[in-house]
């Protein structure tokens, strides 16, 4: 019944960010479950319980087809795991990686509680929700740091339990605006607002960043904005008990990066006379 009812994405709640997914990816990736068998078993269930097919892309069929699409793309492109020589990828002039900045990412000390909580969950549990994956990839790529999607994919490959190289690379390319969709350069996740919406990330932050556990919700996503007396009262002074943000003007940085990507897309389309994206 759960499979048949999975027609629309479930409404996100703070509890959604804790391990509660269908958790099928590791079984598929490690060969414990056949993607073909899963597809046809779902077909049978939909016919028996609902009298018809599912409605991709939000159904489980849609999730599975997207996964298999990335596998096909990876097998047809020997450079699917890198930007250089990747015919699917727009040649974005990503910034050279600053090792100190990347160290702050991998050590979950970016100074953005929403991003740091996501990183801590990924490292400690080997799993993060899709919305968290989007926020993390966006932060590393066109959202803030403007590093290649390869850095985000490598991070997911290193810590995700499923180790799904094809899907991780495909999702990283997609969400960085490098290929697949002309609309995605505009779809970025703020390191503050994406978790703040509906208080989605409050519980995650309190769970994985103990120094902010007593911080008032009003400032928990941007602790540097809290008055100093509140910081003292909660026992968490920014730049002492919790790091200051590694990017000061994050909104300005986001806007500049998006403008650059849109310009690259327009230039590529003018040169080729067509869209440079696959979907």
Spell out the blueprint of helices and strands.
Elements: H1 2-5, H2 25-29, H3 35-50, H4 60-76, H5 99-106, H6 113-125, H7 130-140, H8 149-159, H9 165-176, H10 193-196, H11 202-208, H12 228-234, H13 250-272
Helix pairs in contact: 4-9, 6-11, 8-9
Account of the protein in words:
With 279 residues, the protein is mainly α. The protein is 49% helix and 0% strand. It contains 13 helices and no strands. It has helices spanning 2-5, 25-29, 35-50, 60-76, 99-106, 113-125, 130-140, 149-159, 165-176, 193-196, 202-208, 228-234, 250-272. Helix 4 (60-76) crosses helix 9 and helix 6 (113-125) packs across helix 11 (202-208). The longest helix is centred in the C-terminal third of the chain and has 23 residues, at 250-272. It is globular and about 60 Å long. Residues 274-279 have low confidence and may be disordered.
The proportion of residues forming helix, as a percent range, comes to 40-55%
- The total of helices stands at 13
Q: Give the structural class.
A: mainly alpha
- Total number of β-strand segments? 0
* End-to-end Cα distance: 32 Å
Beta-strand level of the residues, as a percent range? under 5%
Largest sheet: none
Shape: globular
Low-confidence stretches: 274-279
Based on CA atoms alone, the radius of gyration comes out at 20 Å
The overall pLDDT average reads: 83
Q: From N to C, what is the helix and strand string?
A: HHHHHHHHHHHHH
Give the key terms.
279 residues; mainly alpha; disordered C terminus; single chain
Short characterization:
This protein has 279 residues and is an all-alpha fold. 49% of the residues lie in helices and 0% in strands.
């Amino acid at each position: 019944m759960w499979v048949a009812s999975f027609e629309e994405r479930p409404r996100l709640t703070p509890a959604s960010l804790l391990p509660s997914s269908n958790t099928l990816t590791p079984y598929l990736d490690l060969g414990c479950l056949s993607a073909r068998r899963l597809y046809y078993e779902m077909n049978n269930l939909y016919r028996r319980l609902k009298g018809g097919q599912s409605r991709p892309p939000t159904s489980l069929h849609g999730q599975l087809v997207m996964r298999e699409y990335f596998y096909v793309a990876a097998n047809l492109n020997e450079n699917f795991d890198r930007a250089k020589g990747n015919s699917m990828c727009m040649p974005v002039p990503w910034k050279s990686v600053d090792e100190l900045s990347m160290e702050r990412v991998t050590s979950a000390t970016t100074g953005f509680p929403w991003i740091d909580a996501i990183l801590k969950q990924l490292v400690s549990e080997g799993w993060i929700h899709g919305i968290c994956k989007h926020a993390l990839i966006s932060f590393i790529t066109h959202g803030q740091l403007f590093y290649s999607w390869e850095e985000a994919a490598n991070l997911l490959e290193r810590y995700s339990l499923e180790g799904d190289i094809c899907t991780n690379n495909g999702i990283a390319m997609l969400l960085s605006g490098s290929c697949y969709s002309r609309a995605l350069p505009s779809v970025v996740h703020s390191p503050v607002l994406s978790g703040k919406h509906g208080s989605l990330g409050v519980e995650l932050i309190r769970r994985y960043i103990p120094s902010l556990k007593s911080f008032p919700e009003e400032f928990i996503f941007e602790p540097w904005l809290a008055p100093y007396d509140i910081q003292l009262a909660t026992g968490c002074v920014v730049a002492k008990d919790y790091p200051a943000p590694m990017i000061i003007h994050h909104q300005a940085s986001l806007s500049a990066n998006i403008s650059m990507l849109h310009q690259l897309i327009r230039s590529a389309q003018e040169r080729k006379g067509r869209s440079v994206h696959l979907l």
